[in-house]
TrEMBL record:
Gene Ontology biological process: NAD+ metabolic process; NADP+ biosynthetic process
Species assigned in the record: Candidatus Heimdallarchaeum endolithica
E.C. no: 2.7.1.23
HAMAP family per record: NAD_kinase
Protein name, UniProt field: NAD kinase
């Protein structure tokens, strides 16, 4: 068995990756490893030179946070299955933790796991002809926060509406409980064959979210704003847009995710991902603040840099959202012992 390990930069994740490798090697002579750091993968993704890493491997083990996992999914190209491991932050996809390492090693070596397959959406750029798939969502926003953008939305060559909004999110069913939910999008349960289109704070309140068949071709044109507009893939990959028409369609290949848990209660996992929001406390706060509130509920305490990395939001937007949540008494902070320059943010 040939395993590629994608490893986040934090020392705790590096140590956990070493432990996983040692346990797998100790229990099998027929196993080999290759590895890539998350920073190396970032460079490879930006240069579109990532596929060479998966040429001769069987599975990918992602050791890190949600961002590490999403990059690993992108790296897999829908060809190799990915399993998420983390010693720090337990997310919806985490299957390997220090508490179940022995069970996980046995499952991997005996191949007694299941592979869940998830639909993805993909960006098709009319200028560069780039093809960029996303597991959760493709988001289109002005680079600077508090800036409106105008756009025209077309679905299968049918004009839907022309509007102005803070941004636009095109989400998979899996991503419906993420950023799209914070922008008042619907929840899609059961991995249905659909795509969600959610405007963020539209000026025209009649511009509601749209649920479309997954095979639909979504065109977004006439993109204009006072500042640069960006498209963000799963909060990890950013591309500048220069007014060109972009198309978003169902990705050619589904993502393959390894599960070792038996009798997984998807409803329970879904409940754990959702926040029972106090609507009065959060009334009037921007979607970015709601998103960060939900992220802290799901992932646990995080530093500001971790929030920025996980959400893909600009640092200014994150700082403003944390300030709003702190003023409302919803989020607290304390000094980060490993780095006095940073603070840890947590729900109160």
């Amino acid at each position: 068995m040939k395993i590629l390990m994608v490893i986040a930069e934090e020392e705790a994740f590096k140590n956990f990756a070493d432990t996983i490798r040692e346990q797998l090697s100790k229990n099998s002579d027929n196993i080999s490893f290759s590895k890539i750091s998350e920073s190396e993968l970032d460079i490879a993704l930006q240069k579109s030179k990532h596929l060479r890493y998966i040429t001769a491997i069987d599975i990918i083990i992602s050791v890190g946070d949600t961002g590490t996992f999403l990059k690993s999914i992108f790296l897999s190209n829908g060809e190799k299955p990915v399993i998420a491991a983390s010693s720090e932050q337990i997310s919806f996809f985490t299957e390997i933790t220090p508490n179940n390492l022995e069970e996980a090693v046995t499952s991997i070596l005996s191949k007694s796991y299941t592979i869940d397959k998830y639909n993805r959406v993909a960006l098709q750029d009319s200028l560069s002809n780039e093809y960029l798939p996303a597991l959760n969502e493709i988001a289109i926003f002005p680079k600077r926060s508090a800036q409106l953008m105008s756009y025209t939305l077309t679905l299968d060559n049918n004009h839907i509406y022309r509007g102005r909004a803070d941004g636009l999110i095109v989400s998979t069913p899996l991503g419906s409980t993420g950023y799209a939910l914070s922008a008042n999008g619907p929840i899609a349960y059961g991995n249905p064959d659909i795509t969600l289109i959610v405007p963020v704070n539209p000026l025209n309140k009649d511009h509601h979210p749209v649920v479309a068949p997954a095979e639909s071709i979504i065109s977004i044109s006439n993109l204009k704003a006072k500042t640069q507009i960006e498209v963000i893939i799963d909060g990890q990959i950013r591309k500048k847009l220069d007014g060109q028409t972009i198309k978003i369609l169902k990705a050619r290949k589904k993502a393959k995710v390894i599960r070792i848990s038996k009798n997984v209660n998807i409803l329970s996992r879904l409940r754990n991902r959702l926040v029972e929001l106090d609507l009065q406390s959060l009334e009037g706060v921007p979607p970015s603040a709601k998103y960060i509130f939900k992220l802290l509920h799901t992932e646990g305490e995080m530093t500001q840099s971790e929030i920025i990395q996980s959400t893909g939001l600009p640092s200014r937007t994150v700082r403003n959202a944390l300030k709003i949540l702190s003023e409302k008494g919803l989020v607290g902070k304390r000094r980060y012992l490993h780095d006095a320059r940073q603070s840890i943010y947590f729900l109160i």
